[in-house]
């Protein structure tokens, strides 16, 4: 539940908080789960694909579109949120830092494209959930990755 998330101390008002939708992209290899992480564009940190709400798409569809644009992922997204995590989107001098909560949707990867919109701006790599949890900076995303179990299809 969003109410259970510990928000950054700097948050003063509800209107300060932004919502984003993320995709936890996964596949099964030899009976084991692997998750896909990508690098952020500016700081090159390991993250999951995520982005802003879109008026013409459901939250799960927005997460799926972000996975395509940022990682070249095609697959089946679930409409059920697997978790949430707070983080700060840094303006890096281009605007204010924004406190965000990301609603995460599982996306079973069917294919990875060689050509996709942000291919020159990011790296992508498969990890076990345990390995992935050690690569990301956000504590709640670490926990979400460690605990991830693919939904029953």
So how many helices? 3
Separation of the first and last Cα atoms: 23 Å
Reading the helices and strands in chain order gives EEEEHEEEEHH
Structural class: alpha+beta
Give a written overview of the molecule:
- Helix content is 19%, strand content 36%.
- It has 153 residues and is α+β, with helices and mostly antiparallel strands.
- Helix 2 (129-135) packs antiparallel against helix 3.
- The two termini are 23 Å apart.
Key terms:
153 residues; eight-stranded mixed β-sheet; globular; alpha+beta; 3 helices; single chain
Overview in brief:
The chain is of the alpha+beta class.
Write the layout of secondary structure elements.
Elements: E1 18-29, E2 32-39, E3 46-47, E4 50-51, H1 59-71, E5 73-77, E6 83-89, E7 98-112, E8 124-127, H2 129-135, H3 139-147
Parallel strand pairs: 1-7
Antiparallel strand pairs: 1-2, 1-4, 2-3, 2-8, 5-7, 6-7
Helix pairs in contact: 2-3
């Amino acid at each position: 539940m969003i109410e259970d998330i510990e928000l950054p101390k700097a948050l003063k008002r509800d209107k300060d908080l932004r919502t984003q939708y993320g995709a936890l992209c996964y596949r099964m290899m030899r009976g084991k789960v692997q998750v896909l992480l990508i690098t952020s564009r500016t700081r090159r940190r390991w993250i999951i694909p995520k982005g802003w709400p879109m008026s013409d798409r459901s939250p799960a569809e927005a997460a799926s579109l972000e996975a395509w644009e940022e990682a070249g992922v095609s697959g089946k997204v679930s409409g059920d949120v697997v978790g949430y995590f707070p983080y700060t989107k840094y303006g890096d001098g281009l605007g204010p830092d924004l406190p965000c909560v990301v609603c995460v949707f599982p996306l079973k990867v069917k294919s990875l494209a060689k050509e996709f919109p942000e291919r020159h701006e990011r790296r992508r790599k498969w990890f076990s959930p345990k390995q992935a949890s050690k690569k990301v900076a956000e504590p709640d995303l670490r926990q979400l990755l460690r605990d991830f179990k693919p939904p029953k299809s």
